[in-house]
Amino acid sequence: MDERWRVPVIPLKVEPTDEITITRSGRVMRDYRFVFRREDIERMRAGYVCIRCFEPHEHAWPERCHLCGLEMRAKQAHFFSQWFDPQEEVVRISRDWEAEMEGLDERRRKEEERARKDDQQRR
């Protein structure tokens, strides 16, 4: 890769936990523990990688993750302190599944809007 910051974050291990989240609609979602390389954990701690979707960013602490929309500047440090276990070098991800689903719809709408604008510009 040309740019060092683009190196993907790939978990070394993913383990289901006994913890679950029940969404407002009643859907049961299992939480997971992710094991990462020390370097990747440090990139999350320093704000260069989104702790929710693991997307790398060129600059630390962007306002929002450009992939999943997490408010990194406002929320990532808090999530890191809750989810990271320094003794095990593990990040336990507990997702807000309702917000995830809403975010998917919003990203789909934005992508469709961009596609329409691109089509109009080409004409």
Compact summary:
This protein is of the alpha+beta class and 123 residues long. The chain contains three helices and four strands; from the N terminus they run ββααββα.
Task: Describe what this molecule looks like in 3D.
This protein has one domain (4-95). The protein is built from 3 helices and 4 strands; from the N terminus they run E-E-H-H-E-E-H. The protein has 123 residues and is α+β, with helices and mostly antiparallel strands. The mean pLDDT is 84. It has helices spanning 38-45, 72-83, 97-122; strands at 13-22, 28-35, 84-85, 90-93. A hairpin with a 4-residue loop joins strand 3 and strand 4. Strands 1-2-4-3 form a 4-stranded antiparallel beta sheet.
Percent helix among the residues? 25-40%
User: What fraction of residues sit in β-strands?
Assistant: 15-25%
Number of domains: 1
* SSE sequence, one letter per element: EEHHEEH
SSE map:
Elements: E1 13-22, E2 28-35, H1 38-45, H2 72-83, E3 84-85, E4 90-93, H3 97-122
Antiparallel strand pairs: 1-2, 2-4, 3-4
Properties at a glance:
123 residues, alpha+beta, four-stranded antiparallel β-sheet, 3 helices
